[in-house]
Amino acid sequence: QVQFVESGGGLVQPGGSLRLSCAASGFTFTNYVMAWYRQAPGKERELVARISSARNTNYADSVKDRFTISRDNAKNTVLLQMNSLKPEDTAVYYCKRYGRADSWGQGTQVTVSS
């Protein structure tokens, strides 16, 4: 059973940092591009960043130069380092395989507020 468990969210002030983690299971991790998505209140879910097994990365323009996606293929884990956080980064963050019709995990809430 394909599963994703996200963690690491919380409340942070503008300009602060958070590191999200996603534990993936139920498939051969190294065969897939992994991605982080987010959904803000009242908005569509959007792609934030993705990373191939060879660690090639792509980012949404809104997070470029602030967020860094990485993966540990030995631990089946995907990380998202978020720096210089802005109030507009407030959302529930999810990870899953890029381009696959996986079920969403529970996500992790990130709130950026003073």
Question: Keywords, please?
Answer:
114 residues; mainly beta; six-stranded mixed β-sheet; four-stranded antiparallel β-sheet; globular
Q: Rg, please?
A: 13 Å
* Strand proportion: over 45%
Outline: globular
The helix/strand order is: EEEEEEEEEE
Task: Map the helices and strands.
Layout: E1 3-7, E2 10-12, E3 18-25, E4 34-39, E5 46-51, E6 57-59, E7 67-72, E8 77-82, E9 91-97, E10 108-112
Parallel strand pairs: 2-10
Antiparallel strand pairs: 1-3, 3-8, 4-5, 4-9, 5-6, 7-8, 9-10
Q: Could you walk me through the main structural features you see in this protein, from its secondary elements to its overall organization?
A:
The structure is a single chain. The chain has 114 residues and is mostly beta strands. 0% of the residues lie in helices and 48% in strands. It has no helices and 10 strands. The chain has strands at residues 3-7, 10-12, 18-25, 34-39, 46-51, 57-59, 67-72, 77-82, 91-97, 108-112. The strands form 2 sheets. The protein has a 6-stranded mixed sheet, with no helix packed on it. A 4-stranded antiparallel sheet has the order 1-3-8-7, with no helix packed on it. Strand 5 (46-51) and strand 6 (57-59) form a beta hairpin. The N and C termini lie far apart (40 Å).
